[in-house]
């Protein structure tokens, strides 16, 4: 069973795009995937054009049946969407005992039909993110070519470390994922060097980078998976390479050498 939280304390770093594409990558390989959106913006539902009858708030607060709260995004991928009511969900949980373990109690009862659970969290440290990290125990951290995104990645790593210490549960960042990589820009080289340094210092592997690709924006507007929208997309090609590396890490298989993996994008192709 894969449980993975996609986190960065900086917004606009392709967390939702990464969640959507990884869920589809897994489903295309025969896995059943549950996607949970804990962001009040409800980005997953918006990006994929989903229209659920009920949301995360209904499942957590009102105890509605799980099957009534999920919606199928494609064969093999079910989504529990967030919406504006998600803010009230956090307020409801604040007064509960052992509130950090609420997701453990709720989702361990319904995850048996799935091979993977992917959780998209808001770009801020809040209770729902804490619940997600305690339940998921593994983090994937997308990092865009922006110094603030790098700071957000470091904040996610530190949050995982603090929670592990406070609660006594090991929460492990499994990989850093460079996104929106454009080798033509000087800032890309600056951020990539800093990201490599962060990877070495924290011993968190860095995956193959995702090149900037306008197809992603067009795909989101069309409310489709990238695999259905444009198979020749540069971003899809890069995601597939990165997800193969990530799958090996999650399955405990050795990946390629760290020095090689840090050459995240071939400059000649960027």
Short note summarizing the structure:
By secondary structure, the chain is of the alpha/beta class.
CATH superfamily: P-loop containing nucleotide triphosphate hydrolases
Q: Write the CATH fold name.
A: Rossmann fold
Radius of gyration, Cα only, in angstroms?
18 Å
Q: Which regions contain 5 or more consecutive residues with pLDDT less than 50?
A: 256-270
Taken together, the total number of domains comes to 1
Cα end-to-end separation: 35 Å
How many strands appear in the DSSP assignment? 7
Helix percentage: 40-55%
In CATH, the architecture is 3-Layer(aba) Sandwich
What structural class should be given to the helix and strand makeup?
alpha/beta
What share of the residues does DSSP label as strand, in percent? Answer: 5-15%
Question: What summary fits the major beta sheet?
Answer: 7 strands, mixed
Overall geometric form = globular
Mean pLDDT: 93
The CATH C-level class name: Alpha Beta
What's the helix count? Answer: 13
